[in-house]
Specification:
Helix content is 67%, strand content 7%. A two-stranded antiparallel ribbon has the order 1-2. The chain has helices at 2-51, 56-81, 86-90, 106-116, 118-121, 139-144; strands spanning 93-97, 146-150. The radius of gyration is 18 Å and the shape is elongated. The longest helix is centred in the N-terminal third of the chain and has 50 residues, at 2-51. It is built from 6 helices and 2 strands. The chain has 153 residues and is mainly α.
């Protein structure tokens, strides 16, 4: 009976952590959107100065590229330096090296960020990977050697 209670507690804890992570993802994407808009305005201005007025298709492509660049640097800089992004900080989460519990190395953070892009390429199918492994890790965590955990107070 005690073992089944521990398993139930683990499932609840994993589910709650998943909800917090989803909330952090939403917060981070709103922040990235606004930062990316600022980056886009700067690049669009530079494009206009260098090449003349940009066509709508170039403008949209430039917007997408700016959003990707912003997300890449936002995740890498914050998770490497502090172990969290704004969304993770607000919701009491942090990213750590899965083996040492310390801040992840730059290489692990870069791998984590690049592998996270698989979610977009596979239309989110990789999110279901969390069900298939005993540690409830997502693809980018499993292969980068990182994990998201509750931040210590």
């Amino acid at each position: 009976m005690n073992e089944s209670m521990n398993m139930a507690s683990r499932v609840i804890d994993v589910s709650w952590l998943t909800v917090l992570r989803a909330g952090a993802w939403v917060i981070d994407n709103v922040v990235i959107l606004f930062i990316g808009i600022g980056v886009h305005v700067v690049f669009l201005y530079l494009w206009t100065v260098l090449f003349g007025l940009a066509a709508a298709s170039v403008n949209m492509l430039l917007f997408g590229v700016c959003q990707c660049i912003t997300k890449f640097f936002y995740l890498i800089l914050l998770e490497r330096k502090y172990g969290f992004t704004l969304g993770k900080r607000v919701l009491g989460l942090r990213v750590v090296d899965r083996h040492t519990g310390a801040l992840p190395s730059l290489g692990k953070v870069i791998a984590r960020t690049l592998l996270f892009g698989l979610h977009y390429v596979t239309y989110g199918v990789t999110f279901f990977f969390i069900i298939l492994n005993k540690h409830n890790l997502q693809v980018h965590e499993l292969f980068s050697g990182t994990v998201v955990e509750r931040a210590k107070e």
